[in-house]
């Protein structure tokens, strides 16, 4: 159901206030061919109403000729900022960038953040943004989970379907995503509400069994037949099962890149306003699937790059897999039991 401009303006004001936007600061709204017009106009109006100096930087799309999907996360690598010094300079000079075009996994983004600029990604349609406006409570919850994750030396994931995955931790940071940017140099994504890290390079091992109802992104589909991933030395070495396994394997093979099969970020969902069931209700091209990535109690595993965490792997292929009903255990203590977040983890 559409949302009114008034609702979107109020949502932006809340997000910008949580992001500590002050009068006189410079906000640059980064847009592209797929940016939602209502999101763009309400972002610019809300920032101006709070006294900010507001710019819009519209950049042409890239990689559309290579990607198999229109999803913004379906083909990584170069971005509209690659080699674009003028655009990078404008963003570095901004206090806050509102990324409405999905600028992920790029060295240019790291460079901009290092200058102290905050970047907030908002790519979901207005009705999803309005439903999952972040709160200070989201932040507290996610931060507490990230602190717990940062101390862990091992994540073990189990499920009744047969998952038993062991991921040694410590090489990469624990990252919190709670939907607003309240510190200089912070990147975040509205909507979100989850924690993640990466397994130590080459160290994840075990079996991941995706059960019917688990989700593949960017396919944006609920699988209906089991998929069994064998993981050794940090890579998925076998993808077995029925038609869903064949679809995943064929899609990944199209990239012709062995790095695509590396285990990428791992973490769990903490956002009660995100729902497992919504993916089938939205137009596939209208959403990037943040409900699926954030719903409370999911285990989110992914395949592909680790450059977002400071690693060197930059494959164009990236698969996110939100799973239900998993137990996530850090150093022997559950943080999620059978898909339910443990609110008072024992350690
Ligand atoms: Fe991902």
Chain-wise SSE layout:
Blueprint: H1 5-18, E1 26-31, H2 37-49, E2 53-58, H3 85-92, E3 96-99, H4 107-114, E4 118-121, H5 126-131, H6 136-151, E5 154-159, E6 164-168, E7 175-177, E8 187-189, E9 194-197, E10 205-210, E11 215-216, E12 221-222, E13 227-232, E14 235-241, H7 243-253, E15 263-269, H8 290-294, E16 299-303, E17 319-323, E18 326-330, E19 333-337, E20 340-341
Parallel strand pairs: 1-2, 1-3, 3-4, 4-8
Antiparallel strand pairs: 5-6, 5-18, 6-10, 7-9, 9-15, 10-13, 11-12, 13-14, 15-16, 16-17, 18-19, 19-20
Helix pairs in contact: 1-2, 3-4
The structure holds fe (iii) ion (FE).
Residues 265, 302, 318, 320 line the site of fe (iii) ion.
Short structural description:
The chain contains 8 helices and 20 strands. With 347 residues, the protein is α+β, with helices and mostly antiparallel strands. It has 2 domains: 5-131, Response regulator (Rossmann fold, 3-Layer(aba) Sandwich); 136-175 and 192-341, no CATH class.
